[in-house]
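Example 9 (inverse folding). The structure is encoded as follows.
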């Protein structure tokens, strides 16, 4: 994750400063470079995980790019229409390739925000009042790391097939930050840690696991991937909620829950890079492989959530 945060911060800054301080002399080269940088920022806004820097940094980078383009135009004292020399042409071709690559990423990510053409399950919010950001969600691996599990030709994927349409949620503060620090080791420094998890649908608890320890970030438990978790059998699907705080579970197997009933608290147990809530819907799994049922896309409060979508829950419900 630190590498991703570094790239999301440093790469846009380097590209924007480059355009401002060392712009191509040719007009074609300049505008190809400027447009390619803009497309790269747009692609990053989809595929990056904007928990650090926060989600609004993308808009700040966009504003800086506009300013850099103005500075770059002013610095172009000698101008030609087309590049002069092999290095200038290599720069134009390189940025054209970067822009083309970014367009493809944008196309895939945009399509992944549409609800897949299959049965979906509508759920209430599994979290109470707060502002939340989707770290993983959508129908393509570029915006949802778990969507790779949709490929059942890989034998290792079959045991966890049911989690392929999962959504991972983190909580944000008023500044759009999800933790006190860039990537603090103490899970208690993350805003979502300890937040109540509530039933997103009415149903019966068929699996309830507690007792696993909360891990320091970025240590993970690859033996118990969902950590402390619950599977709630609702009318249309089994709903998995995972990575609960140790000792916070408030339900038992066989218990009937109503929408909004308390289940546990968000923690950092299992295979999790940092505290967040995992939620997914699936068909019932097989004995010994409870996550192997066919995955089902979910809508939370009527929204199909993809990476970097944000939503707010207040005392009256949710709003975009």
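The amino acid assigned to each position is listed next.
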């Amino acid at each position: 994750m630190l590498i991703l945060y570094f790239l999301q911060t440093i790469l846009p800054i380097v590209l924007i400063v480059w355009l401002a301080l060392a712009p191509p002399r040719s007009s074609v080269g300049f505008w190809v470079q400027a447009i390619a940088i803009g497309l790269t920022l747009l692609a990053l806004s989809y595929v990056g995980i904007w928990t650090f820097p926060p989600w609004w940094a993308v808009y700040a980078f966009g504003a800086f790019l506009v300013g850099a383009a103005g500075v770059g135009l002013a610095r172009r004292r000698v101008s030609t229409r087309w590049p002069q020399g092999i290095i200038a042409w290599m720069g134009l071709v390189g940025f054209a390739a970067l822009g083309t690559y970014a367009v493809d990423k944008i196309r895939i990510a945009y399509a992944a925000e549409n609800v897949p053409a299959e049965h979906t399950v509508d759920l209430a919010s599994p979290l109470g009042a707060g502002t939340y950001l989707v770290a993983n969600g959508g129908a393509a691996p570029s915006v949802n790391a778990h969507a790779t599990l949709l490929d059942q030709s890989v034998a290792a994927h079959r045991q966890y097939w049911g989690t392929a349409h999962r959504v991972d949620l983190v909580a944000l503060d008023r500044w759009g930050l999800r933790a006190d620090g860039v990537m603090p080791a103490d899970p208690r420094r993350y805003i979502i840690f300890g937040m109540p998890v509530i039933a997103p649908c009415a149903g019966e608890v068929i699996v309830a696991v507690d007792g696993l320890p909360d891990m320091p970030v970025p240590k993970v438990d690859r033996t118990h991937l969902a950590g402390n978790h619950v599977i709630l059998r609702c009318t249309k699907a089994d709903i998995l909620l995972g990575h609960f705080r140790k000792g916070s579970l408030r339900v038992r197997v066989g218990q009937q829950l109503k929408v909004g009933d308390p289940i546990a608290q968000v923690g950092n147990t299992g295979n999790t890079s940092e505290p967040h809530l995992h939620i997914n819907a699936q068909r019932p799994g097989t004995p010994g492989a409870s996550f192997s049922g066919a995955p089902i896309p979910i809508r939370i409060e009527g929204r199909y959530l993809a990476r970097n979508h944000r939503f707010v829950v207040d005392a009256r419900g949710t709003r975009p």
